[in-house]
Amino acid sequence: MTVLRPVPVALATALLLALAGCGSGDDGPTTTSSAAGARPTPRAATTDVGGVRPFAASSVWNQRVSGASAALDSPRMIRLAAESPGPADDISRRSRLNRRRLFVNTRGWAPPVYRVGTGRPVRLLCRQGRCVAGGGAVPSELRLPDDASSDPGHDGWMILVDEQQDLVWDLWRARRVGDTISYQFSRRWRLSGDGAGILESAATPRTPSVRGSGVPLLAGLIRPQELRAGRIEHALAISVPSPAAGRFVRPASTTNGLGPVGSLPEGARLRLKADAATRALRAAGRLRTSDPAVVDPAEINRANPLVSSSAIEGGDDASTLTGDGSTGRLDTVRERSARAIVRALREYGAIVVDRADAPTLYAQSNVDYGRLLYGNELGELRLTDFEVVDLGRELEDDDAPEEAVR
Q1: At what angle do helices 274-284 and 332-347 cross, to 10 degrees?
Q2: I need a surface site. Which of 36, 113, 175, 197 has the fewest CB within 10 A?
Q3: pLDDT at 90
């Protein structure tokens, strides 16, 4: 994982693929707590991660883009990024993928976050010879909450936030058994830093992170306190089906993209178009308490979304009809969350951090959001509702995986 140059390119590529943000499994089931295969129990949505937004005020994550100009080739990059790699003659599959709708992931590939300094001492153990990239090994012991554990069904992500020391650790393939957490990879970040990946240089070899783009897991994460406040004052992290292979822009420092050269590079910043924001806000006003909660992004992309454009644009009676034809009371709690996310996508935008089957945002996962967030609140939106802004200079990642066969 952390053995970099002069490692052969094939091995480095395999390691990068293993760090894909929505994909790879472990050699065996990830175990959390003393019960093998048990998922961590989500806390109530009052759980907060720190009192302030992560990273410095000057960080790209905390800069507004509401007045920035769109890139001239934005439509082409967006179109290519919406297509998942596949056979070139499979036109129907590509067309279907192009219409996949935006989802907010609150489980699975969304990371849990825990504050260091609460709870009891927990031993942290590297399961291989070297587990660290970029310096800053995880201490051998930290005081963590009793419920601090990873999701066994995915990549075992964990974020550990030490506000007193101004440090954040990302863990990959973490497993908890009793009072021991073992892991296979870690990255340390400054909570007050720039939230950007480390660029390769003569003195610093290629340094991956848990994200395919090399950025912190905490960057762009939606937190419950932000939804309760109705305000998100930072850019969001977004994954897209087909980011460009072999190239990236800052704040990324690596890429696991498999798309064509003309696609969106990881690190690119997107902004929700004004007309799409208006449409999404109208949809938020029609959310119902009777809508089922969605925990799988595939659910919102099957058949009709829970909030359909036909219901919104057709002028159905908002007092009796939801997008799927059911009845129920308007849900002002979910509407407030949806509006906060839409405003953030307009004011701060979203930065491409990884690849995923559908355009995906991320919220802290160790939270029981209740009606605060189901994940399908922005089901009106597709990737084509965004535009590329503030692209910056493109850089090459020589050890990245090659473009997939299309």
Answers
A1: 170
A2: 36
A3: 57
